[in-house]
Amino acid sequence: MGKPVRVLVVDDSALIRQLLTTVLSADPEIEVVGTADDPYVARERIKALNPDVVTLDIEMPHMDGITFLRKIMTLRPMPVIMISTLTQAGADVTLEALEIGAVDFIAKPSADAAHALPALASELQAKVKAAARTRIAARAARAPAPVRKVARSVRANGKIVAIGASTGGVEALKVVLMNLPADCPPIVITQHMPPRFTTAFAQRLDRECPMSVKEAAEGDVIEQGHVYIAPGSHHLQVVKSGSGYRCTLDDGPAVTGHRPSVNVLFSSMARAVGRSAVGVILTGMGKDGADGLLELRNAGGLTIGQDEASSLIYGMPHVAFERGAVMQQFSLNQVADAILDACEGKLEANVASRMAHAV
Hints:
The protein has 359 residues and is α/β, with parallel strands linked by helices. The protein is 40% helix and 21% strand. The longest helix is centred in the N-terminal third of the chain and has 13 residues, at 88-100. It starts with a strand and ends with a helix. The relative contact order is 0.10.
């Protein structure tokens, strides 16, 4: 085992600081090197302790967490995990934090924190260790890629696109959607996120992206120029409905540790859409989506994966690629064009050409 991940806990609540310290210290691969009760103290302790990861409360005295996060990302880019409240306001601010550069977030229990937070121990420990492996400094140093406001138009040709993402997906999905046209192929998305957060996420994307974006509801008819995002409380599936398709929601058990699960979405696409399906797996921790994407590919669908260099966390795309579920990998800035190529029949031709040259 290598050196433990060194964490600084920043929270104005002494109780939460103690709970986070206890939960994180229970993992031998994590060392809490210090705590701070406000951003000014945190700033000095970051300089003195040089932690690998910072956990940061969104609601802080003297300087709010968002303002402090902006300063961190400007002056000393490093992995930050936000500690958010399970409220609509908390969801909006958390999404802003993820766009600014926070790696991930964990929802702070709204009541009875002393008993609820330890139940989240495995999630918090996993996210801290994953955050330590991200290339935040390199990512922050790169100039943001230009976003194409007017994307090339394309005929959907009956294709439906399913996208799965987790850690890093808030930023990645926005890049992909901003580079697609307003009349994009129908798109269904599963992004690992709790309830309320998916509502805020869909609203945010709808305001900023050229197409119509909404949180999926039971029975939604899947149409071109529309994006449907799985609610944080339900699995999203695609089912055949007459000559078209619609969304259906399921609040059954977690699959691969998640609800909503990317595997559930991809598997439903394999069954209902088959050869007309395009599956895309983006940045994320873990392995959710790999089995479903392989099922989709075996059903004749086209499959795309985000490459390692552009992934915040190359977990889900890597497992899917290793299992043979991904036909071709692309950098994040190329994914939108790859989706349009798949709809136009060009992706299959490119893959066939590459395989012929390999032989």
